[in-house]
Amino acid sequence: MSFIEVNHNKAYYEVHGEGETSLVILNGIMMSSASWQPFMGMLSKQFKVVLLDFYDQGKSEYLETTYTQDLQVELVKELLTALDLKQVTLMGISYGGEVAMKFAVKYQQMLSKLVLANTTAYTNQQLKAIGDSWIYSAKTYDGKQFFKATIPPIYSSEFYESRVAWLDAREKLFDKVFDEKWYEGFIRLVISAETHDVRDQINVINIPTLIIGADEDIITPLSCQEQIHQEIKNSRFVVIKHCGHASMYEKPIEFFSTVMGFVTVGHEHFVI
Amino acid sequence: MSFIEVNHNKAYYEVHGEGETSLVILNGIMMSSASWQPFMGMLSKQFKVVLLDFYDQGKSEYLETTYTQDLQVELVKELLTALDLKQVTLMGISYGGEVAMKFAVKYQQMLSKLVLANTTAYTNQQLKAIGDSWIYSAKTYDGKQFFKATIPPIYSSEFYESRVAWLDAREKLFDKVFDEKWYEGFIRLVISAETHDVRDQINVINIPTLIIGADEDIITPLSCQEQIHQEIKNSRFVVIKHCGHASMYEKPIEFFSTVMGFVTVGHEHFVI
Amino acid sequence: MSFIEVNHNKAYYEVHGEGETSLVILNGIMMSSASWQPFMGMLSKQFKVVLLDFYDQGKSEYLETTYTQDLQVELVKELLTALDLKQVTLMGISYGGEVAMKFAVKYQQMLSKLVLANTTAYTNQQLKAIGDSWIYSAKTYDGKQFFKATIPPIYSSEFYESRVAWLDAREKLFDKVFDEKWYEGFIRLVISAETHDVRDQINVINIPTLIIGADEDIITPLSCQEQIHQEIKNSRFVVIKHCGHASMYEKPIEFFSTVMGFVTVGHEHFVI
Amino acid sequence: MSFIEVNHNKAYYEVHGEGETSLVILNGIMMSSASWQPFMGMLSKQFKVVLLDFYDQGKSEYLETTYTQDLQVELVKELLTALDLKQVTLMGISYGGEVAMKFAVKYQQMLSKLVLANTTAYTNQQLKAIGDSWIYSAKTYDGKQFFKATIPPIYSSEFYESRVAWLDAREKLFDKVFDEKWYEGFIRLVISAETHDVRDQINVINIPTLIIGADEDIITPLSCQEQIHQEIKNSRFVVIKHCGHASMYEKPIEFFSTVMGFVTVGHEHFVI
């Protein structure tokens, strides 16, 4: 169990593998380092993988007051410094992608590449309303209510159609695992993303950047990734088909093929 | 105040205009005949328009037990018979489109044309899960909770971005207007749609059919309308851009242009 | 046979119907007033329809030197003035849409509504290259060559799949009907569109505007219509599904439903 | 210079790199082994890469009579056998993807993975018409004519907009490099693809398969890859954005990231 302490607040992280290339992964809002375990065998063969639980997430500390994503940005920076990691590939999905963009705007000299999956440069009014509905249901501390308010739009219709039993089991799980402290942490995480808006800032990013979207993502639809693509010069944009917001869960082969290939591939200018 | 009584249950309807062509409109699940009032001036100049509140909707009677959409189909049939309307254009949006398809499968000889907007031939597992979440929140009898659980995914992001004040007012309105009886009626309506599946039946429909989809509809996405289009021979399929599920509210000009033109246009075979 | 003479050059036009509302239609580059005849019965019941052959098109005069689309704009203006038509709906498809936009930028006080189908605000490099290939093949004066160079990408794959015999007949027809003068006229028309670029001008248009796109249009893809939609405030944007560039030929019901509804519909501000 | 001889016809191939994993690449119709040279440095670090010129392509022999793609399938089989390659990843783009599908239907035991880029299971009527237009222009033996007939729809509009000078140079190059023998070979290649239809056969493929599409591919649009995806069970489908038919030229980073990741990634069943 490894922790890093910033301003007296402890955050949990894991390091897997011995590869020369470091891949630092930032979670979506309802995820934790545990969410990536199924893929660690595969990833750690090739990379040194760093997983991190944001504050109010997984095994990291619950905070007592609200904050913005800048706090998570500083946490990432302290972790990379503490581990003496330079020129890492930083990958973030959803909330993690938002933090990754903010990190790249401020500290891109620490990065060699950036991967942004199912994320957005701006918490628009609709996403804010969705966040509000998540907060409202979290305040009931009722896992069933929370599941119903958050999960149905997360996945693609194909996934829902084929995974009904898994989703039912998941609903029962929600009812058991989350306690009041978790819900309160979740609410603070949602609030920390409400003011997210880096639309006018990400044009400074000039490291190789891969943008992954999913055609049935309705939390951060393709128009959100297109906006990022327009702002970040020379960014690469691929779309996973028949896939919802939790792309790395729904289509892990497609997701990790693209990510692992992107981290590995040279970025010389091809003269064709 | 006009009512029709079927099996001792009263349903409310309105007739507007004197046109030779009749347009019968079936509501979405959260709508009522009142929802169409802003457009009655325009529509009644050209058509005889019939509005109907389904059972458990608007001014129609609340029922006491659950039922399937077949009950609503029979209600429509009784109404057309009572008004002695023949060869009408039947238009349904969302839930109303589901009933309209079932009606056309059974009684297409009563119709001259069919318009299906933002609807689906099948309540898939994801839509069922969304319905479950609506039921769950309706059971709280809490307007704010209900609003947050149902409204954010209904509209397009553009609409949300530009209509924040209107949406806030709407949220306050929800909190006032709905009572326990309404919520219980709403729950029965949702349940009546849970078993909806006419995928194997609609291929019998062979009257001129217009299908309207919206590119940001995430309740019944374009793939749902494509499926209907593939099944109904010679059906016409148009898409309103930058528009969510409640297309006639978000983009009334686009919506009614297409509908009014389709009702008016001849359907001779054009020799080009 | 009606002609209007501008600067000693005669252009052919037709007037159909007696409706109070005037609909003036501008052709695509390979079309002529004859192309619209299959639809005149339907349209003339409701509207006074004006068809016009641009210079170098149909029964209008062949010119002797190259020109820009501005010449066609002035032709339209002279025709409307001569016919004493005020507040008309101007509809243009493809090349005709380009002229329609230029007309609206300069003379929108003469228009009540604008319909732009399968057109673009800008002849981009790819469209210019396509135009060059058309010119190159026109210079062979070989109908078969010309057909093969221009027609395959015009239609949707569905249309091609279902209309092979019609397309074969069409190829034979091309070989017979076009003479050297026609090809030279066609080349001048293509050249007149090469410098088309009203991207920075159409934001002055503030009459009700309908934009029609087709999802399989590869001459002026949806991104072209989206660009127009972003520039013309309050423009309405609908898409015909499974349809190529010649939308009014491939999907006449969808096309004319939308157009006729749009011309008819009121444009009051709906208070919803 | 390595050649393999099948039935007295010699075909050219190259082997690059020493990797344990073999990647065999099949060309598009206008390509040759030379087309992949810019990427060999990158690919050969990780894989043993085999390039092959089909008959009538590059340095391979020109044939004297027409044939079907089955001939190319047998050529690939003889090459793999001669090189004693087992369990290779076979990747084909466009025409090469068509041959790759036919190969996989017949000899999938020789493959470990399959990559299909910008290809189709069926030469539909439109694609056949496009092929006819290519043949017609090839018969002129005029490089400029040929360029204009084939190239403009190959690339995305973004590529065309940004690479005008390169495209102009390319047009001049075409005029010099191709001789009558090349054009006749090209015509035979087009004819060999005219009868391509494996729609009912590819459902036997059950090796890990990656399908790459491009959103602006108008030669083999996304609907073609979707069709392949529906037929090949568990196939993976990703789309490169703002990209035309020659995806590996337009977006090499996106293309090779996805391919290299897919070849590397494990295909265990992830238990999430």
TrEMBL record, chains A, B, C, D:
The keyword DNA-binding belongs to this UniProt entry's keyword annotation: no
The keyword Plastid is assigned to this record? no
Give the keywords, sorted: Hydrolase
Q: Which residue ranges does the record assign to the AB hydrolase-1 domain?
A: 23-252
Q: Name one GO molecular function term.
A: hydrolase activity
Name used for this protein in its record: Alpha/beta hydrolase
Question: What does the record give as the organism's lineage?
Answer: Bacteria, Bacillati, Bacillota, Clostridia, Eubacteriales
